[in-house]
Amino acid sequence: GVLQRKLINVNDMLSSISDPKVLINLKKNLFCVQDINRMFPGKGSGFTNTHDRLWSYSKLIEVESIIDKKNFPEGGNVQVKDFFKNRSKVVILSNKHLKIFIDHKKGGQIFSFDHRDKALNLAASYSPDFHNPPDIISPEVSRTWFLDRILPAATKGFDYAAGTIPCLSMCHHNPFEYKLSAGTSNIKVLLIRNISFTSEEHSYPLVIEKVFGLAKNTPSFTFVYQLSNPSLMPYAFKFTTELNFSFPSCSTNNLKLIHGTKIYENPGWEFSQIEAATKWTLEDHADGLRVNFQTQKPIDIWCIPSNISDTHTGASLGLRMILSSAVNLN
To answer: Taking the alpha carbons of 216, 222, 226, 227 in that order, is the dihedral positive or negative?
Structure first.
């Protein structure tokens, strides 16, 4: 669904190209992506195949980057547009290195994170589960970024991975209000929502604010969470947000997670946990890509195997990484 909508949107953007020679070459790339063998699901080929899916996204990202370079030659850009063609607006932040697509109606999750220098969508993990109802982005089915959950305070990563922990609230089911801002060095979107969760037969209100930002001229993406308690009652819980990565090497031994001096081979093939981390790195040696992470406060990292299907191994569905933090609000 996202791949097809991206193809439609990029095709619509061609109207801004006046040079016929450039236009013909760009259209050829779109025709290659539209190849029916790539748009149909299949075990050996098609969009369910990691290589075909990432190849298709790469061609669309290349065409989109050429068009954006002509229309927005300098700095960052903020757009709000009907990406899904269903009258529901999507927030888009971009610079010459990165382009991110945010669905504020579905919990402020990022459904496409385009690394333009590598022509790679890092949020293109495939989900074999059916969407019911058949929405393009479906909570608990789509494998996107920043799927926020409230869990019991004593939750352990291994227990959550085993499916034995109840979720007190899934914040990505609900719409967020948003505000856009642009400074001299960055562009940002603020997402905010009031929610509540139930624990031990008590209902607790919670205000969630999260900010996504891009530096205007560097491949730097930032995210900030602020949780506030509008009541007079103190309470504690575990807050998690999930990111599903679609590195080309997810199903090979070329992907590594590095924390300090320790190297985790094949992250996500089996459960692994890093405690109290503030800096770590994901390296895809086959694609020559390194993603560096840094947080202000220590958090726990859970790498959890993706659910498998009859035709896909868990590793081929992407790297499922959950960032976890204990929260105490007074």
So the answer is: positive
Q: Which residue(s) pair with 90 in the sheet?
A: 81
Interatomic CA distance for residues 171 and 241, integer angstroms: 10
Q: Give the strand pairing for 255-259 and 221-228.
A: unpaired
Asked if 193 and 174 touch (Cβ cutoff 8 Å), the reply is yes
Backbone angles phi, psi at 88, to 5 degrees: -110, 120
Cβ-proximal residues to 302 (8 Å cutoff; 6+ apart), any chain? 157, 160, 161, 240, 271, 272, 273, 321, 322, 324
Q: For residues 91 and 103, what is the distance between their CA atoms, to the nearest angstrom?
A: 7
**Helix, strand, coil in percent for the chain, rounding step 5:** 20, 40, 40
Whether 213 shows a pLDDT value over 80: the answer reads yes
Angle between helices 2-13 and 20-34 (to 10 degrees): 170
Please return the burial class of 267, using the count of CB atoms within 10 Å of its CB with bins 0-12, 13-18 and 19+.
buried
Q: What is the pLDDT of residues 100-113, one digit of tens each?
A: 999 999 889 999 99
Strands, E assignment, 8-55: none
- The residue type at 34: Q
Amino acid making up residue 122: L
DSSP state of 157: H
Lookup: tokens for 38 = 């790539």
CA distance 234 to 89: 36
Token pair 């450039």 is at which residue? 22
Q: 188 is written with which tokens?
A: 């940002």
What does R_g of the chain's alpha carbons equal in angstroms?
Answer: 20
Query: Tell me: the pLDDT tens digits for 130-153?
Result: 665 566 777 677 889 999 999 999
Q: How far, in Å, CA of 251 to CA of 268, rounded?
A: 9
| Strand-pair partners of 132 | none
Tallying the residues shown for the chain, one arrives at 330
Element (H, E) at 57: helix 50-71
